[in-house]
Amino acid sequence: MGEAQDQIPGWTTPPESHPSVPTPKFTFTFDPSLEEFSVPMETYLSTHPQYDAIATGCLVFWSPSSSPSVPRLLIQKRSAHDSMPGRWEIPGGGCDCEDETILHGAARELWEESGVVAARVVGKVGGEHVFFSRRGMRICKVNFEVEVGRAAGEEEGPPVVRLDANEHEEYLWVSEEEARAGRKGGVEVRFTTREQEEVIWEAFSRKKAEMGMMVDGTTDAVVKEALSES
To answer: Residues in domain Nudix hydrolase (predicted)?
Structure first.
């Protein structure tokens, strides 16, 4: 189905289900620009009374050794029995009061939906997106680029993804070209919302800028300044 060029395992068939193990103790680092999200959700909401709850999204990239300049983004297909069945999205979900911080809530959702562990939260992607729940709650969604850790023996190939079958049934690592075309090989990709598409385009733009600057030898401080202006 057109995947021979990448040889990425598990993308055309449902991968192994997420293991029923406790949520790990997260030890990720994060960029100083994200300090405002390194607080419990209730603390953040106390200074942002216009919101009733916080949701997060995680943008996880991987670049194959055969084409390191072409980053791939992890996206997941919503289960047939869920709302917006068959649509694609990035991992994410609502923060809980039990989460240590909003960033921990993002890491927890990433683990629960994808089975990968956040190693570093790189930065915020795009602005806040506000939507309403069925109960009328005003929810603020914040999206983060996240680097993930690897288990022993996982140095080659993409990070191993294990989905929660109750929420997602397939996953893909897509390039920007594939995401914009709405197709990877023989698989059609339709995203959940226009807002989801926009944050994905923004994430690819930031990632390419970051990679290009690093190749040119630009300092980390200059990269951060440029990305903050994007």
So the answer is: 51-204
